[in-house]
Amino acid sequence: MPFQLPDALTTPDDEPALALLRRYYGDDAATGAAFDGWDSTGTRAADADRFTADDLVAVTFLSVRVPPGAAAAILRDRAAEYSDLLVALGPDRDLVDEEDPLTDDDWPGWRLQAALRGIPGIDTTIATKLIARKRPRLRPIWDRVVAAVTDTRKSQWEPVRLALRDQHRALQNRLVHLHGAAGLPAEVTPLRVLDVIAWRAGKDSGLC
Q1: Domain extents in the chain
Q2: Which 8-state DSSP code applies to residue 149?
Q3: How far apart are the C-alpha atoms of 20 and 17, rounded to whole Å?
Q4: Which of 44, 51, 158, 185 qualifies as a cystine partner to 102, CB 3.0-4.6 A?
Q5: Which long-range contacts (CB under 8 A, 24 or more apart) does 1-4 make?
Q6: Do the Cβ atoms of 52 and 41 come closer than 8 Å?
Q7: What's this model's pTM, rounded to 2 decimal places?
Q8: Helix or strand run (H / E) with residue 124
């Protein structure tokens, strides 16, 4: 399963990656910068094991929309099912610390993603963005721009885990360093740093 670093992370010079992060989170921040910390009710921490209206609003900052029927399923009709899967997945933790391969279809993360994708109008992009709202340190966001840049069109979660753990966690450590160097808020996770660098680089290259 391949994983390709964005060009900005293939050089020891931090400036290319920092420039991408600063553009995304800087004074002229993209709307997507609001995704990480959106919490209009102040209850995000308490709602870690259930999807809320705030989560559905947050994903709109990343240029996707949950259709009305899907919103009803997530927030009402199948809310208990998704809550049980979030509980089974366990608390948020860094993907780099997952020692076992994420290859078992019965793993709660895959079951949650499959259950979300089973709702009409919810594709892989929206499903991963919803899961990333609940487990931002564990679930990388997948979309076609990031997938094209990182060569993860067919498989992403496990390749990213392997990449983060490779060479004594060199990539994870680099992402943590870049987070600090860019002065990003605590709610922006190392996975999100990787996502933003890949997405911004892809958009700059004309990927849609």
Answers
A1: 7-204
A2: H
A3: 5
A4: 158
A5: 1/155, 1/158, 1/159, 1/162, 2/151, 2/152, 2/159, 3/150, 3/151, 3/152, 3/159, 3/160, 3/162, 3/163, 4/149, 4/150, 4/151, 4/152
A6: yes
A7: 0.96
A8: helix 124-134
